């Protein structure tokens, strides 16, 4: 490859020596071929000077000086080798006159040598920077993958401690008021915890399982909030088997309880809607566009006068990051506040879970 | 000492969850000397009932609808022994700052409850510092008020800081000016200053804090003082030191 790059250079050199240099074509050819071969290897030394003086952190003067000096020295050595070769060849009858003719071409050869060396330097810098940028890119990708993995691990299987403590407090209250309900709530809470811990292990689950987790969560919260918590659901039956990352929906519902219902004296409502959003954007052309979309909407009312609690948005950002990490551009996440309504809409590719027909 | 000789105490329980109130109620059953005057399910109710009934003891949740526990304390301004009852442990330092008797974590253990009650009884004989003032100024470092609360008779006004134009000291009160109205509150101007984000609010005079976004221009006034003119034409005094601070902020914005 590298030597192939020298063929045009050799051709130019051949032309230079033959026409303004005054050598015959045969003479020039016999000189240029070995000279180019030798110089091809000599120019590889530019690699060291390029490494020694990286573009980024050397001044221009230093760079110019280093490389010009190296070019003069290398080209000088090269021309000396050429002179030696010419003298050697001139002792043969066939190449008589070569010595004199070549001596005339010496300055030309020297200048060409300097230029070629500088060209080699430039090439080396290009190669070095390409190599560097490739490495940097690789590092960025590696870092991103690492960050994503650890993020996913950290984001999963989080049980909100306040939810847990408040639930335990409710159980504590119920023990003397209604022991039966206390036991019932213990079981509901255990059920929720078991589901959360189990689902956290998986990468995707059928929506059906995520909804079961949401129901489990809501039945615990209903004991706490009683009539203050109202839930309205509209779930498309055909969407139940679609694959979703676990703990995607439950944090949104938990958010709705923490920032909506718990701040409303008269209580509030949560509306949960799951749609099978086929034919994205209403485009009904061809099977290529028929990638179905799973649309999930969680809406709740809230008191706009309450100051935002610390931690608001963490749960949402968490869900958004996990969606992006898994689906990239194929998922959408939209948060909207209208008066006292708060709505989160997410859309992801509708994919069946493996094993489900 | 017979139970009759013990001082009778009155208490109010504030929590938005019925079951959480039930726990306190039940634990108080063992103490016939304590009479529960009432229960409240949100901040507004609490302010109203506590102001009317003036109990000795207040069991107070922190995360509640309408007003949070600290805002309730700020508004009742009475000498009252407060026991916080909450699932959140991150407010403990702030509770200590407002001189609360105790800070109980849910679920509440009965021995912790008894200890809190004992401390409350001990505390009742002692003079109590101005709780309202403490509650207004107690903040976690780096966190500023998002809204100010004012009580006007039995009504509670909530003023988001973005709608606060300026604050003026008037004797023992401060006047909070917002949307053309002034709300009086018993608080020092220094503690209002401490609660407000210095990025948006500046003390321009011993008796005046201004919302920087409202300042239209600053003009010389008299020999070495200035006057700040707000967008709605209100003129506020600017002291020499205040002018220095104001210049620094306004020049900083320009550059």
Q: What does this 3D model show about the protein?
A:
The complex is a heterodimer of chains A (357) and B (255). Chain A has ten helices and seven strands. Chain A has 357 residues and is an alpha+beta fold. In chain A, strands 2-4-5-7-6 form a five-stranded mixed β-sheet, with helices on one face. Chain A has a two-stranded antiparallel ribbon with strand order 1-3. In chain A, a hairpin with a 2-residue loop joins strand 6 and strand 7. Chain B has 255 residues and is α/β, with parallel strands linked by helices. Chain B has eight helices and 15 strands. In chain B, helix 3 crosses helix 6.
Please describe the structure with a list of short key phrases separated by commas or semicolons.
heterodimer; A: 357 residues; five-stranded mixed sheet; 59% helix; rod-shaped; B: 255 residues; alpha/beta; 8 helices; elongated
Shape of chain A: rod-shaped
Mean pLDDT of chain A: 82
**Amount of helix of chain B:** 25-40%
Q: Tell me the number of strands of chain A.
A: 7
**Rg from Cα of chain B:** 21 Å
The helix/strand class of chain A is alpha+beta
Q: Widest sheet of chain B: strand order?
A: 2-1-3-4-5
Query: Distance N terminus to C terminus of chain B?
Result: 73 Å
SS field, number of helical segments of chain A: 10
How far the N terminus sits from the C terminus of chain A, by CA atoms, comes to: 54 Å
Seen as an oligomer or otherwise, the chain set is heterodimer
Q: Tell me the structural class of chain B.
A: alpha/beta
Helix and strand run of chain A:
HHHHHHHEHEEHEEHEE
Low-confidence stretches of chain A: 280-289
């Amino acid at each position: 490859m590298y030597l192939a790059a020298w063929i045009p250079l050799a051709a130019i050199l051949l032309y230079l020596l033959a026409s303004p240099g005054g050598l015959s074509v045969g003479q020039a050819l016999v000189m240029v071929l070995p000279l180019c071969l030798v110089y091809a290897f000599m120019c590889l030394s530019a690699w060291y000077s390029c490494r020694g003086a990286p573009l980024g952190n050397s001044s221009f003067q230093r760079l110019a000086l280093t490389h010009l000096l190296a070019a003069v020295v290398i080209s000088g050595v090269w021309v000396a080798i050429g002179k030696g070769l010419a003298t050697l060849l001139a002792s043969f009858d066939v190449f008589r006159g070569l010595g004199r003719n070549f001596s005339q071409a010496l300055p030309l050869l020297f200048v060409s040598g300097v230029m070629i060396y500088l060209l080699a330097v430039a090439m080396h810098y290009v190669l070095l920077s390409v190599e560097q940028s490739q490495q940097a890119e690789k590092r960025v990708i590696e870092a991103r993958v690492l960050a994503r993995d650890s993020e996913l691990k950290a984001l999963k299987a989080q049980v909100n401690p306040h939810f847990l403590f408040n639930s335990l407090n409710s159980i504590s209250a119920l023990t003397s008021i209604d022991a039966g309900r206390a036991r019932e709530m213990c079981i509901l809470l255990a059920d929720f915890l078991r589901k959360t811990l189990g689902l956290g292990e998986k990468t995707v689950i059928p929506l059906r399982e995520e909804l079961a987790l949401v129901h489990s969560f809501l039945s615990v919260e209903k004991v706490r909030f009683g009539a203050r918590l109202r839930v309205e659901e509209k779930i498309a039956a055909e969407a139940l088997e679609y694959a979703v990352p676990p703990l995607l929906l439950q944090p949104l519902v938990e958010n709705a309880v923490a920032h909506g219902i718990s701040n409303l004296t008269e209580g509030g409502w949560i509306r949960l809607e799951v749609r099978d959003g086929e034919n994205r954007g209403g485009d009904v052309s061809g099977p290529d566009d028929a990638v179905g979309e799973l649309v999930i909407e969680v809406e709740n009312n809230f008191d706009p006068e309450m100051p935002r609690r610390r931690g608001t948005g963490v749960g949402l950002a968490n869900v958004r990051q996990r969606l992006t990490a898994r689906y990239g551009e194929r998922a959408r996440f939209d948060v909207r506040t209208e008066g006292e309504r708060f709505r989160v809409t997410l859309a992801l590719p509708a994919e069946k879970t493996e094993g489900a027909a | 000492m017979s139970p009759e000789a013990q001082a009778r105490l009155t208490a109010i329980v504030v929590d938005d969850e019925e079951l959480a109130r039930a726990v306190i109620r039940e634990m108080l059953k063992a103490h016939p000397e304590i009479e529960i005057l009432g229960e409240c399910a949100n901040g507004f109710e609490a302010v109203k009932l506590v102001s009317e009934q003036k109990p000795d003891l207040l069991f107070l949740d922190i995360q509640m609808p309408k007003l949070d526990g600290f805002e309730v304390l700020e508004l009742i301004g009475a000498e009252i022994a407060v026991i916080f009852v909450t699932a959140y442990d991150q407010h403990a330092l702030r509770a200590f700052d407002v001189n609360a008797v105790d800070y109980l974590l849910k679920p509440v253990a009965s021995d912790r409850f008894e200890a809190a009650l004992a401390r409350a009884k001990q505390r009742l004989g002692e003079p109590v510092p101005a709780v309202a003032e403490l509650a207004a100024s107690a903040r976690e470092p780096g966190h500023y008020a998002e809204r100010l609360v004012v009580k006007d008779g039995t009504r509670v006004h909530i003023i988001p800081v973005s709608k606060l134009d300026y604050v003026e000291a008037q004797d023992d009160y401060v006047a909070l000016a917002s949307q053309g109205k002034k709300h009086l509150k018993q608080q020092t101007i220094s503690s209002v200053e401490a609660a407000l984000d210095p990025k948006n609010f500046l003390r321009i005079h011993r008796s005046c804090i201004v919302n920087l976004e409202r300042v239209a221009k600053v003009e010389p006034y008299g020999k070495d003082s200035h006057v700040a003119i707000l967008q709605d034409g209100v003129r506020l005094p600017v002291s020499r030191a205040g002018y220095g601070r104001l210049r620094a902020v306004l020049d900083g914005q320009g550059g």
